[in-house]
Write a structure and sequence with these properties.
285 residues; mainly alpha; Growth Hormone, Chain: A
Amino acid sequence: MLSAAHDILSRQRASGNQSHVDPDPAPTTHNSSSRFDCNSVSTAPPGSRQWALLRRKLYPGRLFSFRGDQPVCYFFLLTSPEPQDPGGEEEAETSARQPLIGSEAPEAKPASSPNLSLWERWTVFKGLLWYIVPLVLVYFAEYFINQGLFELLFFRNTSLTHAQQYRWYQMLYQAGVFVSRSSLRCCQIRFTWVLALLQCFNLAFLLADVWLNFLPSIYLVFLIILYEGLLGGAAYVNTFHNIALEMSDEHREFAMAAACISDTLGISLSGLLALPLHDFLCHLS
C-alpha cells in the first residue's frame, strides 16, 4: 500500500470492474496552483485520513473506521479452523516429544519469560531508552522522507513520469533496507545513535532540496534514498541484536517486545507532521 500509494491516489478506477487497476490510465487532476506536482491527499503513513480515502476508492460503499478494521476482519471475516481429532492431537503431541537425533536428553534452558514485577519492567525499559530513542528517530526521519517528501521530489528533466519516479524511490529504499538487514554477519554497529543522526541529516537535506530545488539530477536522489534504506535497515537489525546480546536471560524477552514500539512510534509521529507539511507545500504557488 505504501509503495503503490501514489498510483492509487492519482488514477481513476477503471469502469465496470472495481478490482481491476489499469497500469497506465489518465491521472487525476493535481493541485494546479502549486509549484509542486502533487496530489491533494498526501501519501503519508497509514493510520491517517488518506488511507480512509484509499479504502473508499478501492471498496466503494463499504464503511471503514481508522482503527476498527486489520477486529472486524478477525471476528467476522475469518473462518474458524475445523476442530481437530483429539486422538490425532494426542498422537502429534506424543511424537513431538520424541528426540529428533539420538536419545540424549535436551539441555535445560533457563526460563525466558519469568513474571517480572512492574518495577523490574520499568527498570528494564529505562535501560532500553538508549536503543529505543535512536530507532524512533530513524523511523521518524525515513518515513517522513518516504511518505512526506517522495511525491514532492519530482524531476521534470527526465524521461521518467512522476509515478515511475515514486516507484523507483520506493524500490531503492526497500532494496537498501533488504541489504542492510542482511548484513549483520558482515558488519555490526554498536552506536546506533550515529545512524539516527545520519538519517535525520538525510531528512534535512532532502527537505531543503524540496524547498530550494538545488539537486540537478534525479540520480543523486536515487543514491541518497538507497543510502537512506541502508541506514534504516542497519539501525533496525543492530538495535535488536545489541539488545539480545546485552540483556540477561530473564529480561531479554520483555526487552525485545518493549523495543518493538520504536518503529510504530516513529512512523506515527512522522505521519502527524508529514500530512500538514504536504498540504502546506502543495498550496504554495
